[in-house]
């Protein structure tokens, strides 16, 4: 209970929850801490950050603005990207979030919903690197051995030469600065360069009738992004808009298949234990279905 913690202890606990993606648990603590110490700037900023991670951008923006009015220098604590994303949402939406089933926990902003048929929909940009937003499975195993399967819709909303759409899963998330991701890349600039020897992305689309898609693995290592699978792997041409991504994690070994075709077999530097869930980058809408995580 909050009344058993000193202000500094409560603030430290709140920061620990946020750093560990425990956003839903952090919200009541942040609200109680601000109510107990309304003039303290750090609890107010942490409450605004918690609201933003849950997609409650209008409330978060109002909280940040109140803090900035009291102390203008606080704005420097926000990255320019995060500040711009928050401002854009505050100006364009009044979305206050929708309750998710107990199995799912949102982090790093964006908008997530689960439709009656079980399809998971992610929209909007998040607050992480490249507007990353994540949805964690509270029931998934955290042991370093499991098989994960999910179908991803590879026809994101958004056309034009600047299409930037990355979607997949987040693996072994220990904190906001330490996690692995495996995702589909639908970024016309990137795939055009990767397919230059084959005539570029346009030639691929003409031949196969679909957008070229690459599977990539990354590691968020503190402030640095690491790419264990350099350049990624072009996946087989899809048959329809949905593709099945299957992953097997055995300690530090990671294997991946797309529509039954092997695309990755990597030995990483350490076991992939930690929280597991869905993710997407940038604002394009993605849909996911048939999510299963089975211990091995």
Topology:
Elements: H1 7-19, H2 23-36, H3 41-53, H4 57-70, H5 80-92, E1 104-107, E2 109-114, E3 120-126, E4 133-137, E5 145-153, E6 164-175, E7 178-187, H6 188-194, H7 200-208, E8 214-221, E9 224-226, E10 233-234, E11 242-250, E12 253-258, E13 261-267, E14 275-281, E15 286-295
Antiparallel strand pairs: 1-4, 2-3, 3-15, 4-14, 5-11, 5-15, 6-7, 6-14, 7-8, 8-9, 8-10, 11-12, 12-13
Helix pairs in contact: 1-2, 1-3, 2-3, 3-4, 4-5
Describe the structure.
Helix content is 28%, strand content 35%. It is an alpha+beta fold and 296 residues long. Strands 1, 4, 6, 7, 8, 9, 10 and 14 form an 8-stranded antiparallel β-sheet that branches. A 7-stranded antiparallel β-sheet has the order 2-3-15-5-11-12-13. A hairpin with a 2-residue loop joins strand 8 (214-221) and strand 9 (224-226).
């Amino acid at each position: 209970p909050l009344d058993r913690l000193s202000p500094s202890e409560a603030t430290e606990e709140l920061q620990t929850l946020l750093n560990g993606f425990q956003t839903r648990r952090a919200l009541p603590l942040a609200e109680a801490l601000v109510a107990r110490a309304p003039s303290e700037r750090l609890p107010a900023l942490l409450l605004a950050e918690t609201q933003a991670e849950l997609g409650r951008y209008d409330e978060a923006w109002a909280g940040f603005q109140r803090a900035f009015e009291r102390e203008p220098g606080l704005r420097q604590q926000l990255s320019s990207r995060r500040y711009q994303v928050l401002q854009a949402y505050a100006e364009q939406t009044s979305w206050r979030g929708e309750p998710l089933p107990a199995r799912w926990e949102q982090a790093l902003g964006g908008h997530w919903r689960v439709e009656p048929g079980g399809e998971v929909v992610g929209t909007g940009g998040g607050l992480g690197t490249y507007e990353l937003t994540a949805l964690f499975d509270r029931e998934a195993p955290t042991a370093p051995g499991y098989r994960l399967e999910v179908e991803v819709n590879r026809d994101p909303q958004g056309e034009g030469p600047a299409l930037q759409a990355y979607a997949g899963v987040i693996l072994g998330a220990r904190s906001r600065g330490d996690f692995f991701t495996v995702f589909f890349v639908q970024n016309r600039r990137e795939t055009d360069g990767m397919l230059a020897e084959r005539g570029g992305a346009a030639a691929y689309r003409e031949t196969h009738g679909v957008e070229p898609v690459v599977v990539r693995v990354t590691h968020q290592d503190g402030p640095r992004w690491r790419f264990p699978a350099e350049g990624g792997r072009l996946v087989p041409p899809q048959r329809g808009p949905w593709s099945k991504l299957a992953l097997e994690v055995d300690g530090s070994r990671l294997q991946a298949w797309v529509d039954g075709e092997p695309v990755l077999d990597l030995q990483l530097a350490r076991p992939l234990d930690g929280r597991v869930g869905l993710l997407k980058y940038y604002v394009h809408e993605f849909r996911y279905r048939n999510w299963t995580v089975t211990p091995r």
